[in-house]
Amino acid sequence: MERLALEELQQQLPADVLVTNPATIESYRWDRANDPEAGTPLVVVRPTSTEQVQQIVTIAAKYRIALVPRGAGTSLSGGSTAVDNGIVLSLERMNSIEVHPQTRSVTAGPGALNAEVKVAAAEHGLWYPPDPSSFEICSIGGNVATNAGGLCCVKYGVTTDYVLGMTVVLADGKIITLGGPCIKDVAGLSLTKLFVGSEGTLGVITEVHLRLIPRQKQPTTMVATFPSLESATQAVQQITRTMRPSMLEFMDHATIQAVNAATGMGLDDQAAALLIAQSDESTASAVEEIQRMEAICTEQGATEAFCTDDPEEGEAFVTARRVAIPSIERMGAVLLEDVGVPLPKLSELVVGINQIATRHQVSIPTMAHAGDGNTHPLVVLDPTDPEQQARAHQAYGEIMDLAIGLGGTITGEHGVGRLKRPWLQDYLGEDIMELNQRIKDALDPLGIMNPGAIFDATDKEN
């Protein structure tokens, strides 16, 4: 069947769409999660149009070949890990961007990078807010597939809040258009929202219509260091109780050390935790809001707290937070968590993660979009040390169990992918998991769409 599928792909598609060179195919086996169980695909396809995607999906369905949609390959949960003898459908070449100033919106191909959309919007005095730390290298299609968040989502929301519509190729090859330029549209079920965060398991997104807003005002920045995790998280709760900062980020001691080692930035590596907050209100209001945040941090025991309205100085601290993950990746292989909890439980989560690290004798630097309770603990491991690797994986599972036990979630913005699938039913519960499966079966009855991501890969009957 694989041979027949490959032959038909070669017959129907331009030669430059297919990648059959083994060396090139190798680079498409993994995403940034580096899933050790990545398979070897039959072929990589790089279409340039919705119609070509339709041809590919139709052939995959005809021969029951697994299809793995892929954006920029920056998934941190194994969402675009290749499967054996499947088709990797890379959308990287579908990167068109068209801004519509009158409707404050943009139409983008799934391969367009988040940063490219921001630049295009800025040319019209507009802004696309969702800003994952990897915004310079991650794709819009991947952002939509995982409902990505970012540093400013505490005030401005996540990807789903900006998706007005999309074009999708379903698992049977049918092309559908959902939503559109209307800001308000409640006709029928909210199918657009169904596909946001579906991680390529229900269809292939080939175009997205996104909402834009007026350009952000220049923010004012506050940085505070704390002697304990508890004092930092208490400050977060006090700030968010009465204010809406445009950014409220957290870095623990191990993260601070990793960033210093990688960049030489000279952050206070004696601190147990560091908070970076911003306000983008009008000048006078921003100063007042930042001063209130500074006062709260001081009341909660901050060893140092200071404010700046200098754009370059403020951006330097934001950059420190953005480079945290690559800085930690220099320490070794990582298992990257994405667990979130209600804000009142944030202290219990970060303290519990620290205790898990001590118990299993592994390093777990933790950073967080603290303002909305979404944390990113990174379990560092040595893949050449089986005993240490086992402890790291045990710690990884315990962190997810901890988040669930605190009324939280196993993923806030990175998606379930393949790495978190074993914990999904524990989080959702049997009834909700079964409802998810019914939707999956209805839209992908052959089970060809990104098998193994979110749902178990099972062979469907004819």
Automatic annotation (TrEMBL):
Organism in which the protein naturally occurs: Auritidibacter ignavus
SUPFAM superfamilies: FAD-binding/transporter-associated domain-like, FAD-linked oxidases, C-terminal domain
Protein name (Swiss-Prot/TrEMBL): FAD-linked oxidase C-terminal domain-containing protein
Superkingdom of this protein's organism: Bacteria
Family according to the record: Belongs to the FAD-binding oxidoreductase/transferase type 4 family.
Known cofactor(s): FAD
Coiled-coil intervals: none
Domain FAD-binding PCMH-type: start-end pairs: 37-215
Keywords (A to Z) from UniProt: FAD, Flavoprotein, Oxidoreductase
Keyword match Transcription: no
GO molecular function ontology, one term from the record: oxidoreductase activity
Cited InterPro entries: FAD-bd_oxidored_4_C, FAD-bd_PCMH, FAD-bd_PCMH-like_sf, FAD-bd_PCMH_sub2, FAD-linked_Oxase-like_C, FAD-linked_OxidoTrans_Type4, Oxid_FAD_bind_N, Vanillyl_alc_oxidase_C-sub2
